[in-house]
Design goal:
This protein starts with 5 loop residues before the first helix and ends in a 16-residue tail after the last helix. The protein is mainly α and 403 residues long. The longest helix is centred in the first third of the chain and has 30 residues. It has 16 helices and no strands. The chain has one domain: MFS general substrate transporter like domains (Growth Hormone, Chain: A), CATH 1.20.1250.20. The chain is 75% helix and 0% strand. It is globular, with a radius of gyration of 20 Å.
């Protein structure tokens, strides 16, 4: 690990720009696309999610394998290539294929992306010292929002008449962003040699080895509820404005744009504040406000109220966006960074489609998408309460350099 330059942060964040475009497609457009196939809210909530329910179970294995991988290109980069088939999937969606193909793309795409993103994210703690991780991740996430904002502007103009351009843009952004990061960022030499250690899984022993990191365990649980709430909300924001507030489809993109711009503005300062004042302290305030603003948004009556509240939501969301992963990296040992990142992401990835599916089911039952926002705000409040219980003491374990 070393101190890195701002140029390194930009090169590393290029792939995040493409991933941000992918994620905002699922948050803003996928619901409209899938509703055109006559699917229910529960099914749309399950599919219109950038996290894969099935693929989440493979993420700890992906992380553990990348910890042990030894190739001439590094141990993380070969797994990052899984983002390329995701780009190909968007080219298939351009043609509006039959329903089985659409479902397959919406299932397999997030599955592969989730596995590739594990390796990508672990490059940050592999390379960057703890004192810079908040700022570096803030820049990284800001680039993701830049990509998402550009996508939303394009979608607002082209979705009604030139949908093929929207899908082509997502495919190109994923491919170009990944290429810049792969060729522009050099992986550091690996720490402890794990290449010859076989992957064995004895459930009781493995869980015991994970639960020894008490604060990390509580943190994973806290962020299960965070992603339960956020994952349950995001696929329905644009459709809430369309169906409950009678806003035209192309104008609903303004809602996510408002939240994303404010998150972009606040992401880097939030990361910087976390490095200076303490990541847990800043995170707790951000999560508390996030919950309050979402609950207030559930009662909005017109477009103007929703836009104002989403600006506030974006400012609050910038805090966990910038600091969630950097804080987690301090609670686990470096030698198990990929594995435990994969395990935590598996749990969080399960929470997203679970929240979207369950909240969508409740919306079907109540007849309004306001239910989704209420449930999401309550889940965020539970996440905040659990976050207060961690001690945020960095794990220090001796690390030997690999020969």
């Amino acid at each position: 690990m070393r101190r890195v330059s701002f140029a390194w942060m930009l090169l590393y964040g290029a792939a995040r720009g493409g991933i941000g475009v992918h994620d905002i497609f699922f948050n803003a457009v996928a619901g409209f696309y899938l509703s055109g196939y006559g699917l229910s809210n529960a099914v749309i909530g399950f599919l219109a999610n950038e996290r894969s329910f099935v693929g989440s179970f493979l993420q700890p294995v992906t992380g553990a394998l990348s910890d042990r991988a030894r190739t001439r290109w590094g141990r993380r980069k070969p797994f990052m290539l899984l983002l390329l088939p995701v780009a190909v999937g968007f080219l298939l969606l351009m043609a509006h294929p039959p329903t089985p193909i659409v479902v397959a793309v919406f299932v397999l795409g997030p599955l592969l992306l989730g596995m590739g993103v594990i390796a990508y994210e672990v490059l940050l703690p592999d390379t960057v010292v703890e004192e810079q991780r908040g700022l570096a991740n803030g820049v990284n996430r800001a680039l993701g929002f830049v990509g998402g904002i550009i996508f939303l502007i394009l979608a607002a103009q082209a979705w009604q008449s030139q949908q093929w351009l929207v899908f082509l843009f997502v495919a190109a952004a994923l491919t170009l962003g990944l290429a810049v990061t792969l060729f522009g960022v050099r992986e550091p030499p690996p720490p402890v040699t794990l290449a010859n250690m076989p992957l064995r899984w004895r459930p009781s022993q493995y869980l015991s080895s994970v639960f020894q990191y008490r604060d990390a365990t509580i943190y994973i649980l806290a962020y299960f509820f965070f992603w339960l709430g956020l994952g349950g909300i995001t696929p329905f924001v644009t459709r809430f404005a369309n169906e409950d507030l009678d806003v035209p489809q192309n104008e609903t993109f303004i809602l996510l744009l408002a939240a994303m711009v404010s998150t972009l503005v606040a992401a880097v300062p939030a990361g910087w504040l976390g490095d200076r004042l303490g990541k847990k302290l800043v995170m707790s305030w951000g999560l508390a406000l996030f919950s309050v603003f979402v609950l207030a948004g559930s009662q909005a009556q017109d477009m103007q109220q929703v836009v104002v509240l989403l600006v506030l939501v974006g400012l609050a969301q910038a805090v966990p966006t910038a600091l969630a992963y950097p804080l987690f990296t301090e609670l686990i040992p470096a030698r198990r960074m990929g594995e435990l990142t994969g395990l935590s992401t598996m749990i969080w990835s399960l929470a997203q489609p679970l929240g979207a599916t369950f909240f969508g089911f409740l919306a079907d039952m109540t007849g309004t998408l306001r239910t989704v926002l209420v449930c999401g705000g309550l889940a965020l409040a539970v996440s905040w309460a659990l976050l207060l219980k961690i001690r945020a003491v960095p794990v220090r374990e001796p690390v030997a350099e690999a020969p």
